[in-house]
Amino acid sequence: MKIKCFRFLAVLSFLLTLSEGDTQVTCVLNESCILPCDLHVGSDPLIHWIHMSTREHFVHSFYNNQTQLGHQVQRFRGRTSLFTDQIPRRNASLLLTAVKIQDEGRYVCRTSTSEGNKKAFVDLKVEAPVSAIRIHQDGNRITCSSEGIYPQPELTWSTEPPCKTTLQNKTMVQQTDEQLYNITSCLMDHDPNLTYYCTVKTQTNQKTGLVKPEISNNVGKISGMVIGVPLAVTIVVVAVIFIILKIKGCTKNNTKTPSNPEVHENSLKSVDCLNESNTAVVEQNNLDTITSTAHLLSPYLSQKSLTYQAMFPRAQQQCPQESYYLNILRC
Q: Which Gene3D superfamilies match (predicted)?
């Protein structure tokens, strides 16, 4: 009984040591990859690369100083080669091209020369990294997705600033016929004031996409204000200015000096006094009208001062002592 137990422990120890001695290699899907191996210095080199899956599959062989592919399995055809010019320098590494997911697994490199035999193990893992993330917002839902990933990825959500509540999301993973993974996650009831981050990652790489806080509501309000209020105010301002200019024109006509004035000892006629009195009244009425109109329109004009500065650039120059909106109407 003790002998059987000792043999079992010895075999287990050997297997653990063998497993720990494997060389780990990660290959990218559809790209080329090198599986390392070396051999003893000597003549008559023999190299066998074998894929250890359900049974041993010959991947590539070299002996009698030439490549031997008579026993190579079909799925490796045209995708393997050795660095034959480096074999004398102990290099027995295998170049594997157009890597497939089916290439994953454990490989053994068996070598032999006139100086002895050697064996090495390589654990090959295939990865299709996360290449891109698509993230978009549709109403109250944010959707994040990525496709063509291997092995199965993980998707996580986060916010900035950090959210105190658990983010309610639904994640779906699908595997294609090529054994690649597509992942999609939907986030509901999001806060429009937060920045949302979607991260898709595998064991060796990750990508992150984001959705920034919404500004569409504010833009809508501003655009409505820009289009609606100034249009009405502009019409009113133009109409008032037109009326005032007409009134000023009438005033000037009333106060024009007659071509043949009658002079009676440096005194004015009663008609001239009446005209001057009427002119003063008209100007005072004009001033009252302008002032009241400016006060009435100032709440609207103040919202778009830049617009009206562009429309009436002379107002500030001609009447600098007055308030700007009063200048628009007076000058």
A: Immunoglobulins
H-assigned helices in the chain: 2-20, 216-254, 270-301, 305-311, 315-318, 324-330
134-214: CATH number = 2.60.40.10
pLDDT per position as a tens digit, 55-106: 889 999 999 999 999 999 999 999 999 999 999 999 999 999 999 999 999 9
Superfamily of domain 22-127: Immunoglobulins (2.60.40.10)
The predicted-structure confidence for 248-258, as pLDDT tens digits, reads as follows 554 444 444 44
pTM score of the predicted model? 0.58
Each domain of the chain, given as residue ranges in start order, spans: 22-127, 134-214, 217-257+267-330
Q: Cβ distance 115 to 90 under 8 Å?
A: no
Using a 10 angstrom Cβ sphere, with 0-12 exposed, 13-18 middle and 19 or more buried, the burial of residue 129 is middle
Question: What is the residue type of 275?
Answer: N
